Amino acid sequence: MCLVAVSKFHPAEAIMEAYAAGQRFFGENRPQELMAKAKVLPGDIKWHFIGHLQTNKLKMVLPYAAMVESVDSVHLLEAIDKWGVENGRVIDVLLELHIAAEETKQGFSQEEILPLLSRQWMGVRLRGLMGMATNTDDESQIRADFKKISDFKQLINRDFPDLEGFDQLSIGMSGDWPIALEYGATIVRVGTAIFGERVY
User: Fold this and answer.
1) Is the residue at 15 inside a domain?
2) Are the beta carbons of 8 and 32 closer than 8 angstroms?
3) Helix spans in 103-159 (H)
4) Which of 19, 154, 160, 174: CA 20 to 30 A from 120?
């Protein structure tokens, strides 16, 4: 299991405290902030981009990110693929599955993801799925959301056996990561429980 310390809005000094304690995976959701931190912090940090990424901001993120967890459209996936080819890179990405009840959350439907799995990508590597549970205190709803995305990943692994490396499931945050682990999470994104409340 990979713990991504969500360091967005927190200063480089706070990241270095976590780094000194052994943490190496950090998550950012703003391109400018990721780029600025990556330039001044240790080079062995594995940056995960976890926010909505606009195609005109790729050059701020892709040179530094070990993984883009939040690919939420075909347009973005194709743009990352094109950037990877042009820059001799293969970018690890997760496809964001929309599972929560809120209409405001980004992401693909299951039906939109399936055709992408058979395409030949040269500049991206599809590594798995990312999703967020409904923002609720109802544990049964959270469990239902996590089960839905976990079941879909298992279906993909069964029906697309030639899809190599599709082994990551990023679900769970500070409030629900123990539940996420029950449903097979390989990545959890924890911010508040590590850094405290956000600094604005």
Assistant:
1) yes
2) no
3) 110-113, 139-159
4) 154
Q: Domain limits at 58?
A: 2-195
Distance of CA 104 to the CA centre of its chain: 18
Mean pLDDT by 10 residues, the chain (200 residues): 95 96 97 98 98 97 98 97 98 93 79 96 98 92 96 98 96 94 98 77
| Structural domains in the chain (count) | 1
Residue 70 belongs to some domain of the structure: yes
The predicted structure's pLDDT at residue 102 = 66
Nearest to 69 by CA among 142, 2, 157: 2
Q: State the CATH number of the domain containing residue 139.
A: 3.20.20.10
pLDDT in tens, 56-108: 999 999 999 999 999 999 999 999 999 999 999 999 999 999 987 766 668 99
Q: Which residues contact 86 (CB under 8 A, 6 or more apart)?
A: 123
Contact 53, 28 (CB under 8 A): no
| Residues shown for the chain | 200
**Residue 200, domain member (yes or no):** no
